[in-house]
Amino acid sequence: MRRFLLLALLAPLSAGAQTLPQTLPQSLPEPLAMPRAQALVEDGTIRLGDIFDGAGTRAAAPLAASPAPGRRIVIETAQLAAIARAHNLAWRPLTGSERVIVERPGRTLSREEIEDVIRADVGRLGLDPAAELELPGFAPPMVPVAAFVQVSTEQAWLDPATRRFSVTLVVMAEGMPTLRQRLAGRAIATQPAVVATRRIGLGETIGAGDVRLVRMRAERVRTGAASGLEQVVGQQARRPIAAEMPVMAGDFGSVIMIEKNSLVSMVLESPGLSVMVQGRALEAAGRGQVVPVMNLSSRTIVEGTAIGPGRVRVTTGSTPMLRADGVGTAQANALANRAPR
Coil, strand or helix: which one is 218? Predict the structure, then answer.
């Protein structure tokens, strides 16, 4: 009797064991998953593994287009739950506040790169290549970080009278739709100007690294501003010069080689003859400048050229500004009267 009951209980189990494989679900079991708080996407597609940890072999499944470079989107709780159900992920929201922020990195195109393309296109219509381009409200677009980018323009237009222009900017890059943006601006005339790279004090000699040549709006450059480095380098500051300000002609001069009222050596030169006598400089002078000098022996005042510290060259035959008998010009008389004896 007991043996009969045992066989009766085992019979259904044996039958069930034979039919069990036929009743299993055909889909794979749901993997355990957890949404990320933040996802960083570098290509043009958001995939399941970007927003869920533990997506397993389904991680590469595409979900949607990623945001534009430099932008972000937020996937809220209801969307996350729908995505998990659609891909058989073992996740259910607990608080209702779960969400994933999806960001896509990008780099901003340089304004110089865009302006170069505009100059090349509008330049064929007569745009001054040295003009400054004024583009009100324009912000350079962003593109994927590592993408190959092509920038071009279309439909260029220029009004020569007002120097206003417009173009259609075209940006093509891998991983983003082609961008077309209409730009309008104005070309501003510029001119070269020398600006100080640092604050230069009174009396300092201006070196090559103390100034640089830039182009500035013509309306901002005052009359008398230096326009070439050769005008400034090696000169002496006659007044303090502020950094990044245009250097004016009155701001610099030759390096003072001879101080006013200082004793100097007068080098009298003629073919085959060179004589040196002592004199007194009546004005300050830099190298190469003409300076009035009084011969201390004859009290005669002549003009010479400063050739170095304390040295003045006077050529034979120079006409005295004041003769030995005291007769001369009013300027020479005034200089002689001021000179110390």
Answer: helix
Asked whether 310 and 297 are in contact (CB, 8 A), the reply is: no
> What count of Cα atoms within 13 Å lies in the side-chain half-sphere of residue 142?
12
pLDDT in tens, 146-173: 889 999 999 999 999 999 999 999 999 9
Q: Identify how many contiguous H helices and E strands the chain contains and give both numbers.
A: 5, 24
The string of pLDDT tens digits covering residues 100-134 is: 999 999 999 999 999 999 999 999 999 888 899 99
Contact 117, 183 (CB under 8 A): no
Instruction: Please give the structure tokens belonging to residue 329.
Output: 């010009």
Q: Are 128 and 187 in contact (CB under 8 A)?
A: yes
CB 29 within 8 A of CB 89: no
CA-to-CA dists, residue 28 to 53, 56, 89, 93, angstroms: 18, 11, 10, 21
